[in-house]
């Protein structure tokens, strides 16, 4: 089942969001924002790995573990309030930077999910840049899928807006 949601975000064009329900509690979500921020400026923000937790909502920590060429290893901890309880999850990610294509792919090496992988994609189009975040996630046993789905729908849109806002704050545009 696919759903498309358009959520108006202030002065922004609508954020486009799709969600697929896949077997065994797997969810694939994609969120896209059309922005005036150029690709190189957004890339600079997305690859400032140590600073991501300074501006991405609900990301408590982002630590660069190592780099070999265009392959990066990160440790991240996210936390948020769910049903009055504090929930946190940690992941160790391997990212592949494909700067010429505007593609930043990631996959979980270990962490609190059964599956956590996806990409950031930046694409220049006439008079704008498309910023896309694509995530395939499968919660661990005992993690309610519906709850994850609901939080991710909100959080992914917020993450795109946070990246855009940080690029603007840095005065890169």
Detail the topology: elements first, then pairings.
Layout: E1 2-7, E2 15-22, E3 26-35, H1 39-46, H2 52-55, E4 59-68, E5 71-82, E6 85-98, E7 103-111, E8 113-125, E9 128-139, H3 145-169
Antiparallel strand pairs: 1-2, 2-3, 3-9, 4-5, 5-6, 6-7, 7-8, 8-9
Highlighted features:
disordered N terminus, 3 helices, about 55% strand, about 170 residues, alpha+beta, nine-stranded antiparallel beta sheet, single chain, Alpha-D-Glucose-1,6-Bisphosphate, Chain A, domain 4
Describe, in plain words, how this protein is organized in 3D:
The chain has 173 residues and is of the alpha+beta class. The protein has a single domain, classed as START domain (Alpha-D-Glucose-1,6-Bisphosphate, Chain A, domain 4, 2-Layer Sandwich). Helix content is 21%, strand content 54%. It has three helices and nine strands, in the order E-E-E-H-H-E-E-E-E-E-E-H. The chain has a nine-stranded antiparallel beta sheet with strand order 1-2-3-9-8-7-6-5-4. Strand 5 and strand 6 form a beta hairpin. Helix 1 crosses helix 3. The longest helix has 25 residues. The radius of gyration is 16 Å and the shape is globular. The chain starts with a strand and ends with a helix.
